[in-house]
Amino acid sequence: MATPPYTLSLHDSQTRRKQVFTPLDPENVRVYYCGPTVYDAVHIGNLRAMLSADILVRLLRALFPRVTFVRNITDVDDKITARARDNGEDIASLTARTTIAFHEDVAALGIQPPDIEPRATHHIDDMLAMIAQLIASGHAYEAEGHVLFAVDRCASYGTLSGRSPDDLLAGARVEIAPYKRHPGDFVLWKPSAPEQPGWDSPYGRGRPGWHIECSAMSHRYLGESFDIHGGGDDLLFPHHENERAQSLCCNPGSSFARYWLHNAMLLSNGEKMSKSLGNFFTIREVLTRAPAEALRLLMLGAHYRSVLDFTWEKLEDAKRTLNRFYRALEKHPSVAPGAVDADFMSALCDDMNTPLALSCLHPLADAALAGDAQAAASLKASGAMIGLLGQSADDWFRAGSDDGAIDALIVQRAEAKKARDFALADSIRADLAAQGIILEDTAQGTKWRRA
């Protein structure tokens, strides 16, 4: 555990202010994050919530003796059904394949696995038990093969997102259906056609609504009340609002999640990521152009509650920053990780302020470059706290200096010079120089050698 004692403060979405974090049980902090819907490759926008959760759990584990981290897999969803149909693929094989790809992608980014990773299809009985409780208490009703949650029966509905009942409907993606008593009522269970996945239930063969899945799984593994629930801010409404409502109504007197954390969205070149705009990138696409650690550093360079704009230039900047850090560690190849820098740790404890924390690494690198072994040890330990600087300097520079990659950068530099983009050309030369690659422009073209 971290020393000296630190006070962790987190911005709670429900109260809309930063609060000192006090766990229900200091001996076991319990955290739930919404995981992926496994029907396609993970794009870098999805990555942000996973990375925010990773930093949070790493930090909690440095401060408390035990953390139980649950992140689910949604493997029953209409998007999955549609994709399997379009692919001519069995749903089970689609979800198995995409789940494996998801695990590979997040592992490449150094994102640690959760302690428990429940799959929605393995918890249908838990969902049906909650639905039965909600019907019995008058918070849900059956209508035309559906079971719906009655939002007007939950006095605190809208508290999490801070919206009035009228605001909740304005622009919301709610299905207008004649069997609903109120337009905002949402589905807990819905009937399945023969070609759709389904399970037998007291309400007929059907499948769960999206929101009840997370309520059932968090309850199963973390109990009626737990510490932190998180995810992207696009989940605040309706998903998290609905989760909260049905869980509180199912377990009166509980708090469900005591703190709610939401990360902001990721843009690409200043625009929302979209396939139609051509700025939609999977993790695997990005990793063909840069090391995984550079993508991780880029994303940690913005506060999790701030909108982050992804550009290839920023990715190159992140690589250059890591080159500098690894050059500092290269001067101390045998040094073991030391104590985490106190200013670095204080920054993380201030609502996971990773940009401020990263700024604390630069003076450590300066000192290490000047020969300070203790600074190098602190640099290595502090980087490890956020999943950085975990490899040797030799491995970092060797991985980034294969002949094919060098030749590709030389071609890119030549094209930049031809287009009179001398800033890009100079940055490529500097990047290669930081990797120990010396360029020589000759009448026969650019040649390179290792320093």
Tell me the layout of helices and strands:
Elements: E1 9-12, E2 17-20, E3 29-33, H1 44-63, E4 67-71, H2 78-87, H3 91-108, H4 124-136, E5 140-143, E6 146-149, H5 165-169, E7 186-191, E8 206-208, H6 210-222, E9 225-232, H7 236-250, E10 256-263, E11 266-268, E12 271-272, H8 283-287, H9 292-300, E13 308-310, H10 312-330, H11 342-349, H12 354-359, H13 361-369, H14 373-385, H15 393-399, H16 403-418, H17 422-434, E14 437-442, E15 445-450
Parallel strand pairs: 3-4, 3-9, 9-10, 11-13
Antiparallel strand pairs: 1-2, 5-6, 6-7, 7-8, 11-12, 14-15
Structure commentary:
The chain is 44% helix and 16% strand. The chain is an alpha/beta fold and 451 residues long. It folds into 3 domains: 258 residues, Rossmann fold; 92 residues, Anticodon-binding domain of a subclass of class I aminoacyl-tRNA synthetases (Four Helix Bundle (Hemerythrin (Met), subunit A), Up-down Bundle), CATH 1.20.120.640; 48 residues. The strands form 5 sheets. Strands 4-3-9-10 form a 4-stranded parallel β-sheet, sandwiched between helices. A 4-stranded antiparallel β-sheet has the order 5-6-7-8. Strands 12-11-13 form a 3-stranded mixed β-sheet. Strand 9, helix 7 and strand 10 form a beta-alpha-beta unit. Helix 4 crosses helix 6, helix 6 crosses helix 7 and helix 10 runs antiparallel to helix 15. It is globular, with a radius of gyration of 25 Å.
Q: Which CATH top level class of the largest domain fits?
A: Alpha Beta
Please tally the β strands and state the result.
Answer: 15
Rg: 25 Å
Please identify the structural class as seen in this structure: alpha/beta
Indicate the CATH architecture of the largest domain.
3-Layer(aba) Sandwich
Number of domains: 3
- Average of the residue pLDDT scores: 92
- How many helices? The count is 17
CATH topology of the largest domain: Rossmann fold
Query: Which bin fits the share of residues in helices?
Result: 40-55%
What coarse outline follows from CA principal-axis ratios?
globular
End-to-end distance, in Å? 42 Å
Spatially, the strands of the biggest sheet line up as 4-3-9-10
Strand content: 15-25%
> What is the CATH superfamily of the largest domain?
HUPs
Largest sheet: 4 strands, parallel
Low-pLDDT segments, ≥5 res:
none
